[in-house]
């Protein structure tokens, strides 16, 4: 599981503020902690320090790097103060950085709606083969598209982290109750984040077309279920009539059972609560 310090609302002790970095990126390896895109070599980046406690109990300073346009809004004033006192950044670069920070300060990105959007699941190419799918527990191979689910974790001392849960796309969709809407959200948010290309989104639409249609048709079959017991044989006939495999209906029923929507009043029958 990947952890990193979560910046929104997190406090920065005064002694840590002295370790804040405003510098050109030395390589193109680091990713922005907000948008997760690469920070290119020689591009100015902001390094926000946080205390990090090692397994042996030692507390060290760690940095989370951001594009200037992506820095946490509650840190903008502190960054601008550090920029003013810096003697290593030339006047032209300082003016550009200040302009970007001023623009960032005016943006309204900390509303509950925006924060919720930032934390929605999205697609990205797996960066290694170390991560495992949270559902099937099998490794997700490097380079293939995976679902990333951001999760906030708060420690007892008040520090906050973002942790990421990873899934195979198939596993994630099979566990969802509203498959098409979840799928469309994944594509839309991933395109906004630029973690996938339009071509990849189009390919995914084609790849999962039959799967989504089967899921929707299965939902139509399930709409036949009322508060009166229905024999599974009748559902099988309906599925056959609509041209959808009963396995898709069975999966939909299973999802419903997990959520307490359906229950089995007797063997071979199913009923809606």
Q: Please tally the β strands and state the result.
A: 10
| Order of strands across the main sheet | 1-7-6-5
Number of helices: 10
Number of domains: 3
Question: What oligomerization state is this entry in?
Answer: single chain
Instruction: Tell me the distance between the termini.
Output: 38 Å
Largest sheet: 4 strands, antiparallel
Mean pLDDT figure = 77
CATH superfamily of the largest domain: Zinc finger, PARP-type
Estimated helix fraction: 25-40%
Question: Which CATH architecture of the largest domain is right?
Answer: 2-Layer Sandwich
- What are the secondary-structure elements, in order, as H or E? EHEEEHHHEEEHHHHEHHEE
Shape: elongated
The secondary structure category is alpha+beta
CATH topology of the largest domain: first zn-finger domain of poly(adp-ribose) polymerase-1
**Compute the gyration radius: what is it?**
24 Å
Architecture overview:
- With 273 residues, this protein is an alpha+beta fold.
- It has 3 domains: 12-108, first zn-finger domain of poly(adp-ribose) polymerase-1 (2-Layer Sandwich), CATH 3.30.1740; 119-207, 2-Layer Sandwich (first zn-finger domain of poly(adp-ribose) polymerase-1), CATH 3.30.1740.10; 211-272, Winged helix-like DNA-binding domain superfamily/Winged helix DNA-binding domain (Arc Repressor Mutant, subunit A), CATH 1.10.10.
- Helix content is 39%, strand content 21%.
- The protein has 10 helices and 10 strands.
- The chain has helices at residues 14-17, 76-85, 91-106, 112-118, 169-174, 179-193, 198-207, 209-222, 232-242, 246-258, and strands spanning 2-5, 21-24, 44-53, 59-67, 122-125, 145-154, 160-167, 230-231, 262-263, 269-272.
- The strands form 3 sheets. It has a 4-stranded antiparallel β-sheet. Strands 2-3-4 form a 3-stranded antiparallel β-sheet. A 3-stranded antiparallel β-sheet has the order 8-10-9.
- A hairpin with a 5-residue loop joins strand 3 (44-53) and strand 4 (59-67).
- Helix 8 (209-222) packs across helix 9 (232-242) and helix 8 crosses helix 10 (246-258).
- The longest helix has 16 residues, at 91-106.
- It starts with a strand and ends with a strand.
- 18% of the residues are buried.
- Mean pLDDT is 77; it is low at 1-11 and 108-117.
């Amino acid at each position: 599981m990947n952890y990193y310090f979560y910046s929104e609302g997190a406090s920065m002790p005064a002694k840590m503020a002295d370790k804040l970095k405003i510098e050109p990126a030395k390589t193109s390896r680091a990713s922005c902690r907000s948008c997760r895109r690469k920070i290119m070599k020689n591009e100015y980046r902001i390094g926000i320090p946080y205390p990090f406690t090692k397994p042996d109990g030692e507390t060290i300073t760690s940095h989370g790097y951001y594009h200037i346009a992506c820095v946490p809004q509650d840190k903008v004033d502190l960054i601008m103060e550090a920029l003013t006192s810096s003697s290593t950044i030339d006047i032209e670069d300082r003016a550009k950085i200040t302009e970007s920070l001023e623009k960032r300060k005016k943006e309204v990105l900390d509303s509950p709606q925006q924060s919720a959007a930032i934390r929605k699941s999205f697609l990205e190419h797996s960066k290694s083969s170390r991560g495992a799918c949270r559902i099937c527990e099998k490794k997700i191979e490097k380079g293939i598209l995976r679902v990333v689910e951001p999760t906030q974790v708060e420690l007892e001392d008040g520090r906050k982290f973002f942790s990421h849960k990873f899934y195979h796309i198939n596993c994630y969709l099979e566990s969802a109750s509203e498959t098409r809407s979840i799928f469309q959200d994944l594509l839309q948010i991933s395109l906004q984040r630029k973690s996938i290309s339009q071509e990849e989104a189009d390919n995914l639409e084609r790849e999962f077309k039959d799967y989504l249609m089967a899921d929707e048709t299965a939902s139509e079959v399930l709409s036949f279920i009322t508060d009166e017991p229905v024999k599974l044989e009748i559902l099988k006939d309906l599925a056959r009539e609509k041209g959808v495999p009963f396995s898709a209906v069975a999966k939909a029923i299973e999802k419903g059972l997990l959520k307490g929507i359906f229950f089995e009043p007797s063997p071979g029958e199913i009923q809606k609560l």
